[in-house]
């Protein structure tokens, strides 16, 4: 199985979606990715779904067949091969899962909040609050649809984990919003222009 070691994680994610007992088209796989992977990994674009399916098929990890899709139309449907199931188990058991790296665009912008008007910082955080609520609603709907289905026991665990993550994000966000002053001298100076007083080239802030 050495030849499979260079597969990207997204290949294994797509392969994994095919292990829930269904033969799926590329379009259906994209729908599954949008309702699962987007909450904790990344939902591949439609073009990437087909790229991964081609890669997996070339290595014999998925099997495909053409089925009728109406007059003059066919649809390709995919399922995991025995070799694909073995490789996926090997990857799960033998490879290092790694540690998640937090790439948080809102936190990055908050780090530089001294360059904005206080109202802009608050508006950014409140917009993120709304986005969190929407994402949480979507994931809650996913969990409600699979929670009592034994075939989706582990996806349900992941969905509950995701809901806990959104809860913790909301709690952290509330802490920041509650601690934000309505305005400060430092922010007012920064809004007018950065580095005008109290700083020297290459040095940190002075007291």
Task: Give your account of this protein's structure.
It is a single chain. The protein has 207 residues and is mainly α. The protein folds into two domains: 88 residues, Arc Repressor Mutant, subunit A; 88 residues. Helices cover 56% and strands 8% of the residues. Strands 1-3-2 form a three-stranded antiparallel sheet.
Specify Rg, calculated over alpha carbons: 23 Å
Give a short account of the largest sheet: 3 strands, antiparallel
So what's the overall shape? elongated
Helix tally equals 8
Tell me the β content: 5-15%
Identify the CATH homologous superfamily of the largest domain: Winged helix-like DNA-binding domain superfamily/Winged helix DNA-binding domain
Q: Strand-and-helix sequence, N→C? A: HEHHEEHHHHH
Helix content: 55-70%
- Report the mean per-residue pLDDT as an integer: 87
- CATH class term of the largest domain: Mainly Alpha
Number of domains: 2
In whole angstroms, the N-to-C terminal distance is 60 Å
Strands ordered across the widest β-sheet? 1-3-2
CATH architecture of the largest domain: Orthogonal Bundle
Q: What structural class results from the helix and strand content?
A: mainly alpha
By CATH, the topology of the largest domain is Arc Repressor Mutant, subunit A
β-strand number: 3
Low-confidence stretches: 184-189, 195-207
